[in-house]
Amino acid sequence: MIKIYSFLAYLFLSNYKRYREMEQRIPDKSVKVYHPNWLLSLLLGERFLAITFGNVIIAKFIHAHLISRIARHEYTHVEQYRRYGVFKFLYLYLSYFIKGLINYKNWLKAYYYNPLEVEARLHETL
Ligand SMILES: [Zn+2]
């Protein structure tokens, strides 16, 4: 029998490389930053640079002048995970996104005006 779950886990979890330049911009050493593998790069698409899961940030390789800004943005998401816990964070993020979709009928606006994203953007330039 084909171990489809193992295969999917392999596709999603393999070949991540540490992204030290971004990791060094984050004072909290428990936070780890990785480059996405090819599958997550594909899923993130062109517009999205990074995604955060708890203490783990997965960020595309970006131009040096943007690294600090994206590091501060994603670190705000790390703090949000800590504030709410993983499940409440994911619940809030998704419910804000769905409310945004209903209000704006536009998924980019739903993302942009998500209060958790608004807070993260505020910290980009602080
Ligand atoms: Zn964000």
If you had to describe this structure to a student in words, what would you say it looks like?
- Strand 3 (50-53) and strand 4 (56-59) form a beta hairpin.
- The protein starts with a helix and ends with a helix.
- A 4-stranded mixed sheet has the order 1-2-4-3.
- The longest helix has 21 residues, at 64-84.
- Helix 4 packs across helix 5.
- It has one domain.
- The mean pLDDT is 91.
- It contains 7 helices and 4 strands, in the order H-E-H-E-H-E-E-H-H-H-H.
- It has helices at 4-13, 20-23, 38-44, 64-84, 86-104, 107-112, 115-124; strands spanning 17-18, 32-35, 50-53, 56-59.
- It has 126 residues and is α+β, with helices and mostly antiparallel strands.
- The radius of gyration is 15 Å and the shape is globular.
- The site of zinc ion has 4 residues, from helix 4 and helix 7.
- Zinc ion is lined by residues 73, 77, 117, 120.
